[in-house]
Specification:
The chain has two helices and eight strands, in the order αββββββαββ. It is mainly β and 147 residues long. It is globular and about 35 Å long. The protein starts with 5 loop residues before the first helix and ends in a 9-residue tail after the last strand.
């Protein structure tokens, strides 16, 4: 007995596995948290960063901004310190924000990110790296505040 749709169904499943956006080989290992990202320097840009702990002591960082500069690539990093007092040297690079979105897996645990003083910082553009447009303190609660 032949199954004319079997080959097509298998081909579709394989295709979706390789082209579906957002799929990753990294497996979530815990509960995600959300960091509020606020505007800086009158940029009008704000949003969130979703931090998800992954197996192997890694963390997925998904940034979503509104009010972003159109047609610009915006660098983003995790820095030591807080938004009020940021170490200008990046601790962990994040994928550039394009059209308000960025997803990066960093090689550190979420516990490490939330136990110290760290912040997610967004720059205006690759040409204007010195201008900060948005920032969010990474706290155990995900809400702004002192550590």
């Amino acid at each position: 007995m032949k199954f004319p749709f079997a080959k097509a169904a298998i081909a579709a499943a394989v295709t979706l596995t390789f082209i579906q956006p957002g799929l990753t080989a990294e497996k979530a290992a815990g509960t995600p948290m959300t960091v509020q990202i606020g505007e800086q320097n009158g940029s009008g840009e704000s949003g969130t960063a979703k931090l998800t702990p992954l197996d192997g002591g890694k963390t997925r960082v998904e940034i979503s901004l509104k009010g972003e500069s159109k047609n610009m690539t915006q660098p983003a990093h995790i820095h030591d310190g807080s938004c009020a007092s940021l170490d200008p040297k990046p601790k962990h690079g994040l994928d550039n924000i394009v059209n308000g979105k960025s997803t990066t897996v960093v090689p550190v645990s979420m516990d490490e990110l939330t136990s110290g003083r760290n912040a997610i910082n967004v720059h205006k553009s690759t040409d204007d790296i010195k201008t900060y447009v948005a920032c969010g303190d990474i706290t155990a609660s995900g809400k702004p505040g002192k550590k």
